[in-house]
Amino acid sequence: MHADFIKMDILNKYTISRKENKNGTYHFNYEIDADAFKTFVEDEIKDAEVLANVEMKSSSSETILQINLTGKVTVECDRCLDDLVIPVEFEGVAKAVYEGNEESDEEYDIIYFSPEDEMIVLDEYLYESILLCLTTQKVHADISDCNPAMLEKFSIVSQEEFDNITAQQQTMGENPEFEKLKALKNEMEK
Length: 190
Ligand SMILES: [Zn+2]
Prior knowledge:
Layout: H1 2-11, E1 15-17, E2 24-33, E3 47-58, E4 63-76, E5 83-98, E6 109-113, E7 119-121, H2 123-132, H3 148-153, H4 159-173, H5 176-189
Parallel strand pairs: 5-6
Antiparallel strand pairs: 1-7, 2-3, 3-4, 4-5
Residues 77, 79-80, 82, 139-140, 146 line the site of zinc ion.
């Protein structure tokens, strides 16, 4: 029961009052972070920085929401288990209708809301839309971005490939500031 309470509590983070925005065009912006996902069982999102931009057009006959998401989420790379940042770009159009009014529409996604309090809750829609951006294979596009130690552990690459990747990373990792520090450190240890 307690878990359910917490879930409901956090689930209503991104809401719009239809009652207060009945007639006209309204704009809402939300920042979605990883906390928003903590309520859901699938815990595959480690970090999130997503901006949701919602334009609501409401009239006595209908309520239409234009929803844009941009940002990025961090998941685990399926290949090396290191962090993998995936861009989020999403555009959707949803129609908000009263619960109980079963609706099917080719043109819009449907978001149901209670006729009693007229609060449109967007949490699930936003969450699912972000998940849609993750359907591609969740691995670093370039294998040299993967954590070589893990690849070797999983025997995904041969020793030779492993050495190549490590050498590449060391080359990329060379930077003059670091070299200076290293020299200084050596000097001090003399
Ligand atoms: Zn990886």
